[in-house]
């Protein structure tokens, strides 16, 4: 863990005792802080108390002597309205911060070890994992955490040339007023979490703080394929930041962009490196090309040579449940994209393959699969499961052959048999449900694990 000494011998209130909250409480106590922790869930309070974490009802606390309120990122800060602890803290003039902010303060005290922070609406986890993989290939000691992986204060403390690669959600950024990474990555922006931020303008403004806070001499890596992010890149450059732009839609004279299936690195109109992505299955699709481009730029800013980065890209295994290549049987590739719980997410997989035997369905989201109609010609046959099966069948109509499989085991067996008998050169059995899992599975991970087990149980060709 990273002990938090910035509040040593002072009183700190902590609200939210989930995984990150417990890790934060431990780190504060290890740094000699006087902690009072609380949660709206009695079970969470009881669990913390059993672990030796001091608890107390913050609604009845004297806030006059409190140095800070440390808030879990899942607790509302501004919208739909501030949590009651936030109101009490602000009334007493107490700052409200989160665990990312505590890390930033400890990092500065430790001499500013390498720190890359990644945000964006889509692609954060893949880019985070890819950057960590590249640094490890380059021989670096690296810690990964934040919104993806362990809670940030549960990581190992600074040591030698240790680097930190941290995924940051908008909630976490909102609670980190002095966020100052050496490398800040903003991938993209589209409407998301507006229930917690009120408007798209506010959501974008929160995300921009990660870029605006990049430390002096650091690097801001920004995807410029949407208007919001493009404007942020322009403002960062005008403010004197070192900006590396990333695009998969247009050629850049300065930055990293996609040319066919190659990443092209340009500096002031001169090509300095070309990195082929063809054949790297874990980085299929334009969305993964953007992730790869951002990770390339960040790894280079952290001192890795382009040739080392290229080697690391080729060995990246990808993330479970995100276009995960499970197995190839004969000519058939089986892909687990269980994380695709809505149509927007499923679109990325459907654009990445041809000759798809598509397993779809579950607990439906608003709009169903109608937005995916453009990609129906890529689907050879659909295998429909779960509550959404009838609605999806009505949308597919006579456009795409389908069958009502009902359950995942039936769908996998039927899709595997049809793909094997198709005579196609590269058929793909794709689980990309465009639905939540909650009708048949506890979460998308359990659904993806079930798919993987079923595929691995299939006989060899």
Write the layout of secondary structure elements.
Layout: E1 11-15, H1 19-30, E2 34-38, H2 42-50, E3 66-71, H3 84-91, E4 95-97, H4 99-109, E5 115-119, H5 124-137, E6 142-146, E7 163-167, H6 170-174, E8 183-186, H7 194-197, H8 200-212, E9 219-223, H9 227-238, E10 242-247, E11 255-259, E12 262-267, E13 270-276, H10 286-301, H11 306-314, E14 324-329, E15 332-336, H12 343-350, E16 356-361, E17 363-364, E18 379-385, H13 389-396, E19 402-406, H14 408-421, E20 428-431, E21 435-436, H15 444-456
Parallel strand pairs: 1-2, 1-3, 3-4, 5-7, 5-8, 6-7, 8-9, 9-10, 10-11, 15-20, 16-18, 16-20, 18-19
Antiparallel strand pairs: 11-12, 12-13, 14-15, 17-21
Helix pairs in contact: 5-10, 5-11, 8-9, 10-11, 14-15
Give a written overview of the molecule:
This protein is an alpha/beta fold and 461 residues long. The chain has three domains: 11-97, Rossmann fold (3-Layer(aba) Sandwich); 101-314, Mur-like, catalytic domain (UDP-N-acetylmuramoyl-L-alanine:D-glutamate ligase), CATH 3.40.1190; 324-456, Mur ligase, C-terminal domain (Protein-Tyrosine Phosphatase, Chain A). Helix content is 34%, strand content 23%. The chain contains 15 helices and 21 strands. It has helices at residues 19-30, 42-50, 84-91, 99-109, 124-137, 170-174, 194-197, 200-212, 227-238, 286-301, 306-314, 343-350, 389-396, 408-421, 444-456, and strands spanning 11-15, 34-38, 66-71, 95-97, 115-119, 142-146, 163-167, 183-186, 219-223, 242-247, 255-259, 262-267, 270-276, 324-329, 332-336, 356-361, 363-364, 379-385, 402-406, 428-431, 435-436. The strands form four sheets. The protein has a nine-stranded mixed beta sheet, sandwiched between helices. It has a six-stranded mixed beta sheet with strand order 14-15-20-16-18-19, with helices on both faces. Helix 8 runs parallel beside helix 9, helix 10 runs antiparallel to helix 11 (306-314) and helix 14 (408-421) crosses helix 15 (444-456). The chain is globular, with a radius of gyration of 24 Å. The protein starts with 10 loop residues before the first strand and ends in a 5-residue tail after the last helix. The model has no long low-confidence stretch (mean pLDDT 95).
